[in-house]
Design brief:
about 120 residues, mainly alpha, de novo design (two linked rop proteins), 4 helices, elongated
Length: about 120
């Protein structure tokens, strides 16, 4: 059962990073959007990459450290997505808000993993 929960969160973080990339393609081509997009693409991808590394960690200390990095990147993704959402005019803000909500949920999941690992 443990392996399935690992896989599910790895897949969930992958899907999040993918959805961010699809969303970014729809933004107007402005200097601000270009810079913000680079930041959120990086942070959204780092969430899952760090979690995969956590699952391959050699010690509990390393595991917790990698999960903390995933949480940090989730927080950063929230910031950039909010900034993009509030500085663009969208026909529907559903996509941006959905991504913000998912990054908040990921942050909470990583916080819970960290607490349980103490």
């Amino acid at each position: 059962m443990k392996k399935n929960s690992i896989y599910d969160l790895e897949e969930r973080t992958f899907q999040f990073a993918k959805e961010v990339r699809v969303f970014i393609k729809e933004l107007d081509k402005t200097i601000a959007n270009f810079e913000d997009a680079k930041q959120v693409v990086r942070s959204s991808g780092s969430i899952g990459a760090n979690y995969i590394e956590a699952n391959e960690s050699l010690s509990k200390k390393d595991f917790v450290y990698r999960v903390k990095l995933s949480r940090k990147e989730a927080k950063e993704s929230i910031y950039w997505l909010r900034l993009i959402n509030e500085t663009n005019k969208f026909q529907k803000t559903d996509k941006a808000e959905k991504l913000i909500q998912e990054s908040i949920e990921l942050k909470k999941i990583f916080s819970a993993i960290i607490e349980k690992s103490k």
